[in-house]
Specification:
By secondary structure, the chain is an alpha+beta fold. The protein is built from 23 helices and 31 strands. It has a six-stranded antiparallel β-sheet with strand order 12-11-10-15-14-13, with helices on both faces.
């Protein structure tokens, strides 16, 4: 390489770029070598410590677990046995010492015999606790790592400790071996750098074409002018499709990032058509391409027409004459997107109020600064609004509000608004037409609705308004109003059309929600009419209940299901508790629930045991399926679950059976909660399968908790978790009343978004006092009737019921006489003093008596007729060994009926 005077020029001259690069490479190599040596030294120290630690632990563990070590420690002279072994192991393993210690720390072995029998210096507690301990210390032989390993006897106890150690110096030496290699590598790198610098210097001269600094400076100035000063975009693309150059204007027009040179054209994020043009390199003249928010005129020529490198050069010009057209197209596209997004965000639920809130929130965020929605009162109730009632003078309720601030003078939420007939707004409502007030400050008549409030709105900054009636099926449902304050642009006619389209779509959703609300209200009303409306009078239990329908619209369930419960008083002061669940939701499930509840009431009047009652109920569900299903297999009920329990307060006995239902919970008087192990019968509707009963004794003040699966099972909670949570909730307070228990259970288990019905029945048991019950065994002899009557009279006198004695004696005389005459087996009489006076006569006959009208010439046949006349209620129930004929007499002090009229004489 020669200079200007043809004198040789060193390629490594320090004033040249090549020389400076060479110095930089030398500095980098020196720094890297120094860093490598430092890393090697640190790594060597770390590896040496790790190797010393591993070797000492391995030697100590091997020696501690060697055969015969326990016998040696237990021998009379452990040192004589262990010292030779320890020294042999030390020499073979290469460690510096192996010391065996007893639990007191006395040395049995040591490389220095004079140390044997002396105490170990250090902490042996971790090792005696069974742990392997390693530590780095500096001893008399230098820095070392020692390990302490416990010696475990056959019984698992620590009987000694083995300590092994090795100096770090023995396992080091890697650095000394690698430093010469590192220095040699550095020298080789310096030689390569020198040669590389010379080659680079020659190549630079060839690449610059021999241009000197002045020529290169002028070329850079021209290049800089093209990059920064030219107000037309310039792009140079190589033959491989990579961007080689882009000036400032091109970066602005195409919105390119700062570091873009070298990137593929296809990766610049341009629209596909423009990217294909730039990558193709074809000739183009004033082709118009939309790029982002601009329309660009593109000119492109190839660079190899005159022997240049392959590629293309492209110029871009912003065509301002087409901006107006582009703006209108963008406006139309934005409005279409606005309406599309509105269809996605408004009407997501079947709730009238929520739909109005979605409309207001969407419009305030995307179209106006404030939005309000007012609805006709009938729409809020789910009723059908009248076509004539939605015009001028209609009262509307402010249902939704959304805006950039909350402290406006607009009517607040919940306000009842009456639109003044003389205002343009009221006129537009009457016609169902939208109203545009582009300039509110002009007070063109809209202020007559409320002049004082109108002045406040203008002072607040509201300057433009659009009001659009919500119309569906030719009826006005309400009014949506849009206001602008922060946006300086007033509403225009094009905004009016957008608002009308937006409100029209929302009105359909509001009407759908209104119709759903009406149907849902009807279904809930039907369902609640089929459920108990109050608690029956009875003394067997204290009871509380809760019924919660599912939230409307969740999961398409409609909010109405087939859950039901019942409290049914039974003869003998007993009570039946029922909880059931019909599969499915909606009106069909609610109607079927009513049929099953009625059936349970009817079957309970027969005083059937729980398993037999469920069998009859199962047969009924099968018939319902057959009658309603027909050829459509999906039209039937498909099944139901039920739990039926009978509690007797006289004995504290409870009998229950279930058909596919969840186990009831029983809270003992001591507060302990258990789930009753009622035999699991199949769900109702399968047909032909038996049910079993569970008999148990419930002490007084026990709580029996019946519920449906909606309480313990949810989409976000497994049923086992729900049952465990129910148990914990019931365990918390054993002294709660049934009402307090219901509140506590719902507070703990009610899901945030309830997707299924919940029926909960909590009862606290009572037991009748022994003084309220009297019974007698009656011999099968007609003469015993008078004795029973006398005993009953005495008992009624004790109960202060002398006024009932005449009627009661007459009833018992007829029942006992019939039992002696027609029945078999032992006869027993029982009196129960409850809300009414209950008389029971039991025998071992299964023959049921029948009431009939005796003729005037008949000598008999009037016994049950008399009983029916004197008793308020009477009936027969069957037991496992016979039957019981019972009567109930009110305790109101009524005069007994005339005997002659009772006989029909």
């Amino acid at each position: 390489m020669a200079g200007r005077n043809r004198r040789p020029r060193s390629v490594l001259r320090m004033r040249t770029v090549a020389g400076q690069v060479f110095l930089l490479q030398v500095a980098i190599v020196v720094l890297l070598v120094a860093a490598a040596i430092a890393v090697l030294v640190l790594q060597s120290r770390t590896d040496s410590e790790r190797e010393a630690r591993n070797r000492s632990v391995a030697v100590a563990e091997t020696f501690a677990n060697a055969p015969g070590i326990e016998e040696a420690l237990n021998s009379p002279d452990p040192t004589a046995v262990l010292q030779p072994r320890a020294e042999e192991a030390r020499k073979r393993s290469g460690v510096d010492f192996i010391v065996v210690l007893n639990p007191d720390g006395t040395r049995y072995t040591h490389p220095l015999p004079d140390r044997i029998g002396k105490k170990f210096v250090g902490n042996l507690e971790p090792a005696l606790a069974g742990r392997v301990v390693t530590e780095k210390i500096t001893g008399t032989i230098g820095p070392l790592v020692q390990a302490q390993v416990p010696i475990t006897g056959s019984d698992g106890a620590v009987i000694g400790v083995v300590s092994a150690g090795i100096t770090i110096e023995k396992v080091s030496g890697v650095v000394e071996e690698q430093i010469p290699l590192l220095l040699g590598s550095a020298a080789g790198v310096l030689l390569l750098a020198t040669g590389g610098t010379a080659l680079v210097s020659r190549r630079l001269r060839r690449q610059t074409g021999g241009l000197g600094p002045a020529e290169m400076t002028r070329m850079y100035e021209h290049h800089d002018a093209v990059l920064h000063a030219v107000r037309e975009g310039v792009l140079i693309v190589g033959g491989d499709g990579r961007l080689l150059l882009a000036n400032d204007e091109a970066r602005r027009l195409l919105d390119l990032p700062a570091e873009v040179e070298g990137a593929q054209v296809a990766d610049l994020g341009l629209d596909p058509e423009t990217a294909r043009l730039l990558a193709s390199g074809r000739i183009a003249t004033d082709e118009v391409h939309p790029v982002g928010d601009r329309l660009l005129a593109v000119n492109q020529r190839t660079t190899d027409q005159h022997g240049g490198p392959p590629g293309s050069v492209t110029t871009l010009r912003d065509t301002t004459e087409l901006q107006a057209l582009t703006g209108r197209a963008d406006l139309a596209r934005g409005r279409l997107k606005l309406l599309y997004d509105a269809g996605m965000e408004i009407g997501t639920t079947l709730d009238v109020v929520r739909t109005c809130e979605e409309l207001a929130e969407f419009a305030a965020a995307r179209f106006a600064d404030y939005a309000t929605v007012d609805l006709v009162e009938a729409v809020l109730r789910g009723e059908e609004p009248t076509a004539t009632g939605a015009g001028a003078g209609t009262d509307m309720r402010r249902t939704a509000f959304s805006g950039v601030r909350d402290d406006t003078a607009l009517y607040p939420l919940g306000e009842l608004i009456r639109f003044v007939p003389s205002t343009p707004l009221s006129s537009g409502l009457a016609k169902g037409e939208a109203i545009l007030e582009a300039d509110l400050t002009a007070f063109s008549g809209w202020q007559e609705q409320d002049p004082e409030r109108a002045q406040q709105l203008v002072e607040y900054g509201l300057h433009s308004m659009i009001a659009v009636p919500l119309r569906a099926r030719g009826v006005v449902l309400g009014l949506a109003m849009f206001w602008r304050s922060a946006k300086p642009e007033p509403f225009e006619e094009e905004d009016l059309s957008v608002a009308e389209e937006l409100v029209a779509r929302a009105a359909v959703s509001v009407d759908n929600a209104r119709r759903y609300t009406r149907e849902h209200t009807m279904a809930v009303t039907l369902q609640r009419s089929l459920l108990p409306r109050g608690l029956p009078e009875q003394n067997a239990i204290d009871v509380a209940y809760r019924y919660l329908p599912a939230q409307a619209g969740l999961g398409g369930l409609g909010g109405v299901g087939g859950d039901w419960f019942d409290i049914i008083p039974l003869p003998g002061a007993r009570v039946a508790l029922v909880v059931g669940d019909v599969v499915g939701h909606g009106l069909h499930a609610a109607a079927t629930m009513g049929r099953l509840r009625t059936a349970v009431h009817n079957f309970s009047t027969l005083d059937l045991p729980p398993d037999e009652l469920l069998w009859h109920l199962d047969e009924l569900v099968v018939r319902i399926d057959q009658d309603e299903g027909g050829d459509d297999a999906d039209a039937g009920v498909t099944g139901a679950t039920c739990l039926y329990a009978i509690y007797d307060p006289v004995t504290g006995h409870c009998t229950m059976a279930r058909a596919g239902h969840l186990q009831p919970a029983i809270v003992r008087p001591d507060g302990r909660t258990v789930f009753a192990d009622v035999p699991g019968g199949p769900p109702l509707g399968l047909g032909g399968l038996p049910f079993e009963t569970l008999d148990l004794h419930l002490p007084e003040n026990s709580r029996l908790v019946l519920y449906t699966d909606g309480l313990v099972e949810d989409r976000d909670r497994d049923i086992d978790e729900g049952l465990a949570l129910l148990r914990r909730t019931l365990d918390d307070h054993a002294d709660r009343t049934p009402e307090e228990t219901c509140e506590a259970v719902l507070g703990a288990l009610l899901p945030e978004r309830q997707r299924d019905d919940i029926a909960l029945l909590v009862s606290r048991t009572r037991v009748l006092d022994a003084g309220q019950v009297a019974d007698w065994d009656v011999p099968p002899d007609p003469s015993s009737v008078s004795k029973v009557r006398a005993a009953v009279s005495r008992k009624l006198a004790e109960w202060d019921l002398e006024e009932e004695a005449y009627t009661t004696e007459l009833i018992l005389s007829e029942l006992v006489t019939n039992a002696i005459r027609y029945a078999t087996g032992p006869i027993r009489v029982r009196l129960i003093h409850d809300r009414s006076l209950i008389c029971e006569v039991s025998d071992h006959s299964s023959t049921s008596p029948h009431l009939r009208q005796a003729a005037t010439t008949d000598e008999g046949g009037r016994g049950l007729f008399l009983v029916a006349q004197f008793a308020d209620r009477w009936g027969t129930r069957y037991t496992a060994d016979g039957k019981v004929i019972w009567t109930e007499q009110p305790l109101g002090g009524d005069q007994p009926p005339d005997l002659a009229s009772a006989y029909g004489l």
